[in-house]
Structure formats: structure tokens, C-alpha cells
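Sample intake sheet
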Amino acid sequence: MPRRALAMLVLALLLAAVPTAAQAKGATAANISGGGPGGLPRGPIDLKGDGEPGSGSNLANLAEAAGVWALLFEDGQPGNLVSAPLPASLRGPRYTITWTFPNGAGTDDKVLQAVWPYAPGGPITYMPAGQKVLDTRTEGGWFRAADNLRQSLVSLGLPDRPALTAPAPAASAPAAPAPAPAPAPAPGPSLWPWVVAGAGLLVVAAAATLARRRAVGRRSPGSASAS
């Protein structure tokens, strides 16, 4: 075979391999389950197809809406959250999406992602860290999705429910009234009557003493003349 023809053949093989390598990062299937006791009315939902980002397939659109690429390859993109925006009791029913990624070694990697499609303010997703995918592991994280994720899941078979309404903030409790001042101690019995009575006794005693002295003085001259 001429060298030119051989070179063209090698180039053609390399070009043919490029799309396969590019598609290695796209999911090939998704399984949706959960939703609380009893699960989905018709059982788990299986979705297959070309999950390559931008392909326009239902699988690719679902992955995009659920924040799969933002959590796997675009850390810090809009929608990523550092923590859960709502407590579990306010998020509504939880579903699980199991994504299938071909890893190029003839096997598939399974990546789990929790989804709360009816959460107030928009769907919430969470991808646990440490899951093997392609040639790396998931870092995990929370993601606030747009309402198109809820709409996509409803179109695939989830119950057609509107998003939940966030509870109104609890009214602040009225301030506790200030404690009533302690009653003033009852006044003790007045001392004035005793003071007045004491003064009166002193006056009487003084008058009696003075009268005795005068009586003694009057008797003294008479006694001297008789002698």
C-alpha cells in the first residue's frame, strides 16, 4: 500500500475515533425511582439515548436541567450551592436518578443523584461525593435547578404537581412584659404616738418634781420659827 494511502487511512481512523472519545463523557441511560412510600405509580422510569451535552435528546436535556454537568465538570457555575437551601421536611418528595456513563473500559459507571422536583423556589438536586465516573470521582454538591426540571420529570411520568409554597416566616413572639416592681414594704407602725406619750410622761414627771420641791420649800421656814 502506498505511503500516501496509508497516511490517509490512519488519519481517517483518528478522525473516526474523535466523536467516540467526545461522547465518553455523556450518559447513555438514566433510571428514575423513589417518590416516597410505594414509589412511582407506574414503577421506575428508564430513559436511554445520546446523553452527550448539547445533543438535544431527552436524556441530555434532563442531565443539563438536573445540573449534572455543573456538578461534574463546571464547579462554581450558577446553580451550584454550598449547602442545602431548605430542610428535608420542606423539600417535598425525593426521587433518585441513577445515571449510566460508559467508562471506555467495557463497563459502565453508575452515578446517583437525589432530586426534589417540587421544592419551593425551584427543584433541588444533590449528588453525593466519591462516586466513580469516567476517570475521576464526583466531588458532590447541591444544585438549585429551574422549573424546567420539574416539567421534564412530569413529562416523563412523575405526578403532575405544582411546586410547593414556602411556609410563611413565623411571627416573632411578642416581647415579654417587664416584671411588675415589687410592692413597697408596708410601713411599720408610726413612732410618733410613742414619742408624744414619752414626752408627756417627762413633762408630768418634771411637774411632779417641781411641785414637791416647792412644797418642801414652804415647809422649811415654819419649822425654823417653832424651834
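Comment: Helices lie at 3-22, 58-65, 68-72, 147-156, 192-226. Residues 3-24, 223-227 have pLDDT under 50 and may be disordered.
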